[in-house]
Amino acid sequence: MLLISVREVVHLCALGCLTFIYSAAGAFLSTDYFAHVADKQAYVPQIDCDVKAGKIINPEFIAKCPPGCQDVKYRVYGTDIYASFSSVCSAAIHSGVIDNTGGKILVQKVAGHSGYRGSFSNGIRSLSLPRWRESFLVSEGKPRKGVTYPSTLEYSSSKSTAVKSEPKKPEQDLKGTKTADTINTSEKASDQGDTVRREYQTTPVPTPATQMATTTPTPTTTTTDPSTTVSQPSTTPAPARTTAAPAKNRPGLHRVRDMGSSSVHPAYASVVAAAASKMSSHPRFLPTSILRPGGLCSDFILSFLSLGFSSKEELNTKPLESISQGNQNCKVDLSFLMDGSWSIGKRRFQLQKRFLGSVAQALGIGSAGPLMGIVQYGDDPSTEFNLQTYANSKDLRNAIEKIQQKGGLSNVGKALSFVNKNFFLDANGNRGGAPNVVVVIVDGWPTDRVEEASRLARESGINIFFVTVEAAAQNEKQNVIEPNFVDKAVCRTSGFYSLNVPSWFSLHKVVQPLVKRVCDTERLACSKTCLNAADIGFVIDGSSSVGTGNFRTVLQFVANISKEFEISDTDTRIGAVQYTYEQRLEFSFDKYSTKQDVLNAIKRISYWSGGTSTGAAISYASEQLFSKSKPNKRKIMILITDGRSYDDVSLPAMAAHQNGVIAYSIGVAWAAPDELEAIASDPAKEHSFFVDEFDNLYRYVNQLIQNICTEFNSQPRN
């Protein structure tokens, strides 16, 4: 009599079932099932005409543009290389990759440039820009060899971004139309929110196939909730290094759970179901009944999978407990430039790492608080890890301990330029609403010049701090390439942004003072840029000579200017006054706190018609708008008129200037040049503009913004 133990039965069952699964999956699922998955991944996401490259987090992607993007309301900045707040699809038309019928395009993010040249090409006039933090290139929508592309795009304004499963209807080409509908208010997305099925996905950075052996790919997970369109945010930041440490065993990984309540990954369940379906027409395999629910192999497989083994993406994901909310009173995006030069030596390099670990602990790193990355510099800078690599102080400190010294010179200027162009990007975890802060640690003095790189970084909104250790002695100062390099580099020269430490052995004493300063967001003056630190009041001529059609063109001009600024109750605010013989407050600075609300309010302004009393309008705007401006805001008045005023403009304009109002005047057609100069701030040639007809107003949008930014950046830094 043959006796078989229970253990042997289980072993035989396991061997038979697993052999069956391997053969079934290899024979059938490798061709049908995985081909189906590949088809789903090949889906190309569609974007709207008004989508700007800077709003998309993915550093490289393929997307489909709709018809009708060849319109003046979709702004483009640059030629060949475009600033990231350009319309992606309009830039593609400008570059000749697609035409107004739309099509697929390939977009690649690149570093920012110090200047963008405007040009007219393929029916689109691009504008010039002095500088911008991030750029992009557009080419034919064909995938590069060895690169995988996301089927869903992730936007910086939310955790993840919806992709429409149905093609968007072509928009009507509104070019040249003088109606209220020409103002781009981007209302489409919210109107369709309840009717469009949405798919959410956290998308990995495109990875060349040649790097697959040394790179741990960021997991891609797709969640579709049939009852809601709310995204399921990922809790795991993507690792910055190309080689990742082996994943730790999850708690209870090999523990047998209660099989009656086990939960199996849907991918495994679908494999079993697909295999069972294939079996029905192939009698050479085991009977399909063994795979039906309750069948021998079905129960064994599901029980086996429920022992704790997880899908690939689960194993690569950090445990939830590693995500910390952090110190919510210190929400800053922080980059430390650590000195890796040979002059520091091995022992002092260790002291520097200990200091950085103490700072990380004191900051209280977390997703709702400060985030911290590190760039090490020597001859050349390199990112050790970015803002989204570590989400708690413990993991960050452990990573700091593993940093190896680079060696080389102390090229701080090159490091600051690198950070300005490459570090504070959405793809690296930059949060937009959090101030950008750079802390430079330098042993002695830099071996290159820092002034120009620092200026460009400050103009990008980066707050630069310096921690100098063992500064040059009196007999060493002749070796310093750039005297007073700290004052030339830091955000302000008041002393708040610089700490001088006499010895590396006393570096620990400045941990708390430094943390207190970088967390004092009210004093981070360089976070204020020309685009987020103004109260802008538009004074609009509504006289009879303007006419209804031209008045809508003026409102389009006002909207085009407004949408280039960062609008909120703490950033730039917009107000508007319309005038004839009388004056009317259309909306005040504190009325609307979002860009969309402001654009909608501009669209709703109704044409008044009447005479032209420009002087009275300036006085009215000074009283009703600018007297209520916030103390820390630059007061900017932009006045648009098409004729000579019935009253004096000189005295009201002078009074406004004396009260700190920076006045820009834009004259159209019959406007008087002498009055435009009297209204404008000094120098008048940089604050007054004239166009011969209303349809040419759009040409001065970029020039006006550029002049506002140039004036802002020329402020004294004391």
TrEMBL record:
Keywords: Disulfide bond, Extracellular matrix, Glycoprotein, Neurogenesis, Repeat, Secreted, Signal. Residues 165-178, 188-200 have a biased composition (Basic and acidic residues). Residues 65-136 form the LCCL domain. One of its GO terms (cellular component) is interstitial matrix. Pfam families: LCCL, VWA. Its main location: secreted. PROSITE patterns: LCCL, VWFA. It is found in: Secreted, Extracellular space, Extracellular matrix. This is Vitrin. It comes from Cyanoderma ruficeps.
